[in-house]
Amino acid sequence: MAQIIDGKAISSQIKEELKTKVGALKAQGVEITLAVILVGEDPASQVYVRNKKKACEYIGIRSLSYELEETATERQLLELIEQLNRREDVNGILVQLPLPKHMEEQKVIRAIDPKKDVDGFHPQSVGALSIGLPGFVSCTPAGVIQLLKRSAIPIEGKRCVVVGRSNIVGKPMALLMLRENATVTIAHSKTADLPSLTRQADILIAAVGKPKMITAEYIKEGAVVIDVGIHRDAANKLCGDVDFASVEPLCSAITPVPGGVGPMTIAMLMYNCVESVKIQEK
Ligand code: NDP
Fold first, then answer.
1. Is the pLDDT of residue 271 over 80?
2. Measured distance CA(60)–CA(69) in Å, rounded
3. Check: CATH 3.40.718.10 for 139-262?
């Protein structure tokens, strides 16, 4: 039977560690502040923002909330970001994505001071990751590395296939696995004969955005399978990119959905907020 990687327990452990660190920083007179900007009323985004604020409260991070109307202009948003960039009492700035269609996401991300880019989406953060410099790392892929390490799953020397090449998951995921000395292949929608490629993987990371697409025929026996996907199936139940029922019997370890990668994203956002103090000191 496969080891079920418990993202809920691991994320709680990380949050407890951060809470202690934040308490110690407070005792030295250092308070951490995260500014969260939400534009519009997308219900899923509202839930994400609420959960991020709750996590801040739990850990002892001050959160400032900015809610802009769906009709706000890009200029208004950029001006708010500029104000927050200038404020010395703000350590992290997070703009909840997606933005309304009339706003250019990349332009907004580029407006955030890279030293406050706790989502790790700024080109400078991505560039730092790719050449091995310190900087913020995108939260979901950073969470996957924590899941592997804290489950004592070796990465060095392993063959890793990442399915998906998005800027926020697939690409940083591949760079992080490379940093951990895995041999990494990135697959995408134009990859020929995907199952024969993924069957070579010791560690398979699915960030493909297609419910239950990764079935048993994609898996090498004994592989570690990490499922980044989050969807609702026909019965409105949460599921991932991996068909858990057919894959689990084949692999040595697997993340469930829910309770695998999902809880790690906010834990790593909190980690980045705490790291921001160090990054801003430099
Ligand atoms: P995107 O839609 O941005 O990227 C999906 C990637 O998968 C693309 O690179 C695409 O290739 C590739 N792809 C699509 N279809 C296929 C296919 N048939 N074969 C091979 N590759 C394919 O998604 P994200 O990276 O943003 O997210 C991926 C998943 O992770 C989603 O389910 C999302 O909900 C989830 N997610 C979960 C998070 C969490 O906290 N757990 C956080 C972020 C995302 P191409 O580039 O060629 O189009």
1. yes
2. 28
3. no
